[in-house]
Amino acid sequence: MVQKANLPWVEKYRPSTLDDLVSHEDIIKTVGKFIKEDQVPHLLFYGPPGTGKTSTILACARQLYTPSQFSSMVLELNASDDRGIGIVRGQILTFASTRTIFKKGFKVIILDEADAMTMDAQNALRRIIEKYTENIRFCIICNYLSKIIPALQSRCTRFRFGPLSPDQIMPRLNYVVDEEKVQITEDGKNALLTLANGDMRKVLNVLQSTWLAHKNVNEDTVYTCVGHPLRKDIENMVNWLLNEDFKKAYHNIQELKTLKGLALNDIITELHKFIHRIEFPFQTSIRILDKLAEIEYRLAQGANENIQLTGLISSFQFIKQIQPPE
């Protein structure tokens, strides 16, 4: 543990065995059975970031090989490496075609973030996978299955890693909190789970950042650390949108945005959740949610935030005229 003192918590607490993994029991059980019966196929892991794809295959590799064998039997290439057709025909082909004389079994090639590979590189990989199956097992890892060509998909056994549920994340979060002696509140834990959306890596990164910055992890410090709107800020904004005139609402929201460095996209996301809890007339809710969706779409297309903010305020002003407050 001494060597791990300065590591980010994401790496420090990365599971090293299949038993340490906190989720996807059916996948881990299946892959464990492949290893036990020495019938490992080519694997394709896909799903959102931070759901355990890389940790699973590294844990499998550690189960297959001793630490001294690991470097000679496992080739791991990540998105940071050049993975054009040159790497496939060079480094991957060389590693795949070299037989293991004194070690029994097969080698493993891990292609992490494989959806960043060029189409030429993926096509060149097809033949290598077929030709050297006796000697090599490939594990292709990606976020978007649609970016992997069908020919590669058909050569692999596919496993989808879905976002982790709060019940799966919480035991690991509590373990890290106890190990690092972090002062954390229940609303702080809930804020971490809300922000993460099933991403274990994000939970630990935000936890570590908040702890280092504030030495106390609660809902406000978590949201402040990542620049996310606080619940009371959203309440104030809704109050201004519904009760103030256009000029004052714009001035107040713009001032709060600048003061706290908030992004309009995050504000829209939180407004959407908040609006669902307000008992508006049916038609009013439809109009507001439709407008929020339209503004979010425009922001995603790169539209100006100030113009979209005025559009947001004007939609509430328009609704007030149709439905005057009682």
TrEMBL record:
GO terms for cellular component: DNA replication factor C complex; nucleus. Keywords: ATP-binding, DNA replication, Nucleotide-binding, Nucleus. Pfam families: AAA, Rep_fac_C. GO terms for biological process: DNA repair; DNA-templated DNA replication. Residues 39-167 form the AAA+ ATPase domain. It is found in: Nucleus. Gene3D superfamilies: 1.10.8.60, 1.20.272.10, P-loop containing nucleotide triphosphate hydrolases. GO terms for molecular function: ATP binding; ATP hydrolysis activity; DNA binding; DNA clamp loader activity. Its main location: nucleus. Belongs to the activator 1 small subunits family. PANTHER family: REPLICATION FACTOR C / DNA POLYMERASE III GAMMA-TAU SUBUNIT, REPLICATION FACTOR C SUBUNIT 5. NCBIfam families: PRK00440.1. This is Activator 1 subunit 5. It comes from Dendroctonus ponderosae. The lineage of its organism: Eukaryota, Metazoa, Ecdysozoa, Arthropoda, Hexapoda.
